[in-house]
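Colleagues,

For the teaching module next term, I've prepared a clean inverse folding example: a structure given as tokens, and then the sequence designed for it. I'd like students to try predicting residues themselves before seeing the answer, so please don't circulate the second half yet.
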């Protein structure tokens, strides 16, 4: 095999990138979401729903101009790390660097710190929103992609996982997804993004559902059959009548994304991770 020279990245670069991404994610709504608000406002049939979209757009503009959080719940910081196999880190431990970046951003950026230590034996705030949740994937190449996803508690609480039987089939999965959104109602601050994970194992399917919500609005699964399911299930979710802010209307969800993985012949894991209208995420590549 070819002995390729490793690219060296100092962990301070990672720390600084995470710090910047955290602040931007919490204060700057992504362009795809802003455009979706504008487009779906025209499709919304409820006057109240249209007014909610106007308020969401105004809120996003104020947050951007004044560099203040889009939502007071600045979330549990979830970090997706795609590390090229030809990269080597120097200067310290990568996970510690990520948490340093998170801690500095939430302190210096005046972002709400929502993380407590052991919730049962020592329910004391950690003071800097750490530790973060870090998902690391080794990929080809010599670059590092960092995606920061601040995940609010309200929408996370409405998320569900179910170990279904293969006999339940795709119709059973669909019913589980729709029922999860219906039961959530107004709690996750609609219009929401619905992330669906299918396959894998109990733990991995939840990761798939969480990863799904990092996609851009309109970014369909490359598998055409899965893309068809995404569009169909989104339409069915939007027939529930929950509407913007849960006040009734046509647009309950902005998007529905599905990520899949091979499964065991005896099980059919399914997970739904719901994201609120403040679907904050930012990425960069080092």
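(Answer key — instructors only)
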């Amino acid at each position: 095999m070819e002995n390729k020279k490793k690219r060296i990245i100092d962990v301070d670069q990672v720390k600084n990138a995470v710090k910047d991404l955290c602040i931007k994610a919490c204060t700057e709504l992504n362009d795809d979401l802003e455009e979706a608000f504008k487009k779906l406002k025209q499709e919304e049939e409820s006057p109240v729903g249209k007014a909610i979209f106007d308020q969401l757009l105004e809120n996003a503009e104020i947050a951007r101009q004044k560099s203040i959080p889009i939502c007071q719940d600045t979330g549990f910081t979830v970090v997706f790390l795609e590390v090229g196999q030809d990269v080597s880190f120097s200067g310290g431990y990568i996970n510690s660097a990520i948490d340093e970046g998170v801690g500095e951003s939430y302190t210096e950026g005046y972002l709400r710190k929502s993380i407590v230590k052991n919730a049962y034996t020592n329910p004391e705030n950690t003071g800097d929103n750490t530790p973060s949740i870090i998902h690391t994937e080794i990929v080809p190449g010599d670059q590092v992609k960092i995606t920061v996803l601040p995940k609010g508690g309200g929408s996370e609480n409405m998320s569900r996982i179910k170990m279904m039987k293969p006999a339940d089939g795709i119709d059973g999965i669909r019913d589980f997804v729709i029922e999860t959104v219906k039961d959530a109602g107004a709690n996750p601050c609609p219009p929401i993004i619905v992330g669906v994970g299918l396959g894998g194992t109990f733990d991995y399917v939840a990761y798939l559902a969480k990863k799904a919500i990092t996609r851009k609005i309109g970014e369909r699964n490359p598998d055409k059959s899965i893309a068809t399911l995404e569009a169909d299930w989104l339409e069915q979710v939007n027939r529930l009548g929950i509407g913007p802010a849960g006040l009734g209307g046509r647009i309950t969800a902005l998007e529905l994304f599905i990520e899949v993985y091979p499964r065991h012949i005896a099980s059919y894991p399914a997970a739904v991770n719901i994201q609120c209208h403040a679907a904050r995420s930012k990425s960069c590549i080092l």
